Structure formats: structure tokens, C-alpha cells
């Protein structure tokens, strides 16, 4: 708790008046911006000493002069083997298993297994995510119950199980020789923690369907960034689908505006948190893509990122005293304990299904399955938690998913066409 007074002094006065909805903000400790800075200060207390140690070992040329029992650990964490694969694709994903002549029925069964596993994992995860963050526990006729407020603890629960599953998988199966310096995973880990935190926190301010549509539309900022920073060129259908997604999201948001009971500030907080999610998540995927230049498997990536995620989150929770508070909440409410554990199981299993599906059927099939999952998630949320969607809002949702399916179809056609191009010709870059 040592960093709370410092953060409190640095926050603007906007939160002292009518800026924060009383139903959502009981104290400074419940203000999302305050918690964000407190969490960031906790991560910095681990990152800064780690950075200084890494610089110290590099300046001392420890790789040449180091000795003793600590040398292998320091070498692995700071230097690695520094052997990169010749082609980036070598380390990203294992070569996709091509369908054999065994039987079409077996391939269909595998596809149904992958689709069912992904849908069950992530639909359950989405329903539980909304339940944990928006509903109370322990409510009775005389007691309204209490809400669980610490999103960081849920991130920690997810990461500790994912770390365990990935570690067991790496120990029991043959993996490529690891070459990346371990500290490089910390960048993707930090952005992954922050993106997950923003995702959980945003549900306090906006509805789950709004969150799903915002995540589906992140292709737009990705294209803008590629155009401005990387000077990429895009096909006409990419601009068309991006425009359709924008129109669909706008239809949904504008049609829902008159029915909202939350304040403008609350809505603005949700938008800021969603923007934070998209930014951090985009950085995570791009940094992981760069790390795959080292020869590693996706499960090794999952293990490395989650090692640092567990370290950062447990360190920050201990410094704030929030770990014991969350454990006490679990002791008071056994229903929350079941939800938190199941949430973590779904997250870990979902990651394994992602790797298996892409390995067996490729990224296009995986994208179609996950796009369907987003549509089903909105439907389930509306049915279970009573979100109302107007006719115009429903049309907006349909436009978004039509654009996403059109994007998948056009990309698969372009890939087939690029394979038939004569040597030397390259298709236009795409995202």
C-alpha cells in the first residue's frame, strides 16, 4: 500500500465531484485509474531492478567472464543461446498437418472436436467473466451481497494455471531447443497482463456485447497503424470490410445510447479501457511474433510469458495487500471460488485448443470458429443477463460479422491466388 498516497496525489480532481458514478465508485480505491497506477507501480518495482541487473551483467560481459553455479541461470535469463532460426516461420507454429487419405470422417471428427473445444472454453469463459465482474456474491433477503473488485487477482488465477499446464506439456513432450533470453518474454507478459486487466475492468462500465464488438473491430486501428507507420498497402476488400465493421459498430452503439442508464463519464471510462485493451493486445501479438524468430514452439511461448505474468501479478498483489483480501473473499464465497477456478481452466484449455486447431486446420478455419464464437457470446450474454438489443443494433451486429466472414473468405482466396503466382511476383501486403 506504500504507493497509494503517491498515486492519489497525482490523480486529477475530476474524480472528486460528480465525475464518478456512486454505484460504481465507493472510494478512491475503486477508481479504475487509481488502481491502474497502483498496479503499474507494483510491476515497476519488479521491472526496474530486473532491468538494472540485466544492464549490469551485459556491461560486465558476464557471458565471457561468468563462473559458478549461477552462470547457467543468468545466461538463460539474460543472454540465451542467441541462435535464431533462418526463417521466421520455422519457430512460429509447427507445420500444419495435411489431411491424409485415412478418412474424411476422421478429419470431420477432428474439426468438430476443435470447434466444440474452442466454443465450450471461450463461451463459458465469457459468461463467467461477465458474472464475476458485474454481479454480487452472498446476496440474501436482508443483505445485498458484495461484488468482487480486484481484476488483477483474476488475471493472476488465469496465468498461474496456464503456467502450470504449459510447464507440464513442455516437460512431457519433446520441444525445440530453447534459445531466447528469458527476460524478453517479460515485455509480452506485461502487455498481456495489462490487456487482460483492461478487459475485465471494462465490464464494470460497458455491456459485454459492446466489449465483444469493440474487440472485433480492432482490425481498424491495426490497418491505420500499418498505413501510417509501416507504409503498407491494402486491397480494396480490406478497406471495404473495415468500413463495414465501422458502420456496424456505430449502428449498435448509437441504437443503444437512449437506453443507457450509466453516466457519460462511466461510458467514457469503458471506452478508454477498451482502447487500452486493444493497444496492449496489439503490442503483445507483435512482440510475440518477433520472439518467434527464435526457434520455439507456441507452448514454450505460453510458458515463458506466463512465468513473468505470475511473477508480476503476485508481486503487485502482495505489495498492495490485495492477495490476502482476495483469498478472504474466496473463503467467504464458495461460489466465487468455483467461478474463478473454472474461469482459469477455460482460459488454459482454450489456449491449448488454439494451438491444436491452427496446427491441424490452419489460421483461416480457426478465425471462422472464433468469429462464430463472438456471435454466440453476444447471444448468450443477452439471453442470460438480459441485455436488450434493438432492431438497428441487431442489424449492426449482423453487419460486423458479415464483414468479418467476408474478410476471412477474401484472405483465403488471396492466399490461394498467391500460391499460383509466378516466381518473383508477390501479392500486396495484408493484415
Automatic annotation (TrEMBL):
It is found in: Membrane. Keywords: Membrane, Signal, Transmembrane, Transmembrane helix, Transport. The chain crosses the membrane at residues 33-57, 108-128, 153-172, 236-255, 261-280, 301-318, 338-356, 363-386, 392-410. GO terms for molecular function: 3'-phosphoadenosine 5'-phosphosulfate transmembrane transporter activity. Its main location: membrane. It is a multi-pass membrane protein. It comes from the Eukaryota. One of its GO terms (cellular component) is endoplasmic reticulum membrane. Residues 1-17 form the signal peptide. It holds the Pfam family UAA. InterPro entries: EmrE-like, SCL35B1-4/HUT1. The keyword Transport applies. Belongs to the nucleotide-sugar transporter family. SLC35B subfamily. This is Adenosine 3'-phospho 5'-phosphosulfate transporter 1. The gene is Slc35b2.
Amino acid at each position: 500500500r506504500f504507493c497509494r498516497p503517491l498515486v492519489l496525489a497525482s490523480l486529477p480532481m475530476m474524480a472528486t465531484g460528480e465525475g464518478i458514478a456512486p454505484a460504481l465508485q465507493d472510494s478512491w480505491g475503486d477508481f479504475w485509474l487509481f488502481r491502474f497506477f497502483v498496479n503499474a507501480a507494483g510491476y515497476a518495482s519488479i521491472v526496474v531492478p530486473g532491468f538494472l541487473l540485466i544492464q549490469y551483467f551485459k556491461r560486465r560481459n558476464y557471458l565471457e567472464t561468468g563462473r559458478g553455479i549461477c552462470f547457467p541461470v543468468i545466461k538463460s535469463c539474460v543472454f540465451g543461446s542467441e541462435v535464431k532460426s533462418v526463417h521466421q516461420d520455422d519457430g512460429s507454429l509447427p507445420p500444419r498437418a495435411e489431411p491424409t487419405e485415412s478418412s474424411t470422417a476422421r478429419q470431420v471428427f477432428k474439426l468438430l472436436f476443435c470447434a466444440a473445444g474452442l466454443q465450450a472454453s471461450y463461451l463459458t469463459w465469457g459468461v463467467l467473466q461477465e458474472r464475476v465482474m458485474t454481479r454480487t456474491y452472498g446476496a440474501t433477503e436482508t443483505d445485498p451481497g458484495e461484488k468482487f473488485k480486484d481484476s488483477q487477482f483474476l488475471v493472476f488465477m488465469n496465468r498461474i494455471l496456464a503456467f502450470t499446464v504449459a510447464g507440464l506439456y513442455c516437460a512431457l513432450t519433446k520441444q525445440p531447443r530453447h534459445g531466447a533470453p528469458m527476460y524478453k518474454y517479460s515485455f509480452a507478459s506485461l502487455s498481456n497482463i495489462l490487456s487482460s486487466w483492461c478487459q475485465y475492468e471494462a465490464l464494470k462500465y460497458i455491456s459485454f456485447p459492446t466489449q465483444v464488438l469493440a474487440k472485433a473491430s480492432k482490425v481498424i486501428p491495426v490497418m491505420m497503424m500499418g498505413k501510417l507507420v509501416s507504409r503498407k498497402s491494402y486491397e480494396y476488400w480490406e478497406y471495404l470490410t473495415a468500413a463495414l465493421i465501422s458502420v456496424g459498430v456505430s449502428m449498435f452503439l448509437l441504437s443503444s445510447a437512449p437506453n443507457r442508464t450509466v453516466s457519460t463519464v462511466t461510458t467514457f471510462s469503458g471506452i478508454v479501457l477498451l482502447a487500452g485493451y486493444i493497444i496492449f493486445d496489439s503490442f503483445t501479438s507483435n512482440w510475440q511474433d518477433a520472439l518467434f524468430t527464435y526457434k520455439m514452439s507456441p507452448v514454450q511461448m505460453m510458458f515463458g510469458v506466463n512465468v513473468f505474468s505470475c511473477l508480476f501479478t503476485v508481486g503487485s498483489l502482495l505489495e498492495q495487500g490485495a492477495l490476502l483480501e482476495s483469498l478472504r473473499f474466496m473463503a467467504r464465497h464458495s461460489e466465487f471460488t468455483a467461478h474463478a477456478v473454472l474461469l482459469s481452466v477455460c482460459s488454459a484449455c482454450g489456449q491449448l485448443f488454439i494451438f491444436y486447431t491452427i496446427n491441424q486446420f490452419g489460421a483461416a478455419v480457426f478465425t471462422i470458429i472464433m468469429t462464430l464464437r463472438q456471435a454466440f457470446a453476444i447471444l448468450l450474454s443477452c439471453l442470460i443477463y438480459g441485455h436488450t438489443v434493438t432492431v438497428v443494433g441487431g442489424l449492426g451486429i449482423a453487419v460486423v460479422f458479415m464483414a468479418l466472414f467476408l474478410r476471412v473468405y477474401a484472405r483465403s482466396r488471396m492466399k490461394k491466388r498467391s500460391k499460383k503466382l509466378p516466381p518473383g511476383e508477390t501479392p500486396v501486403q495484408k493484415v
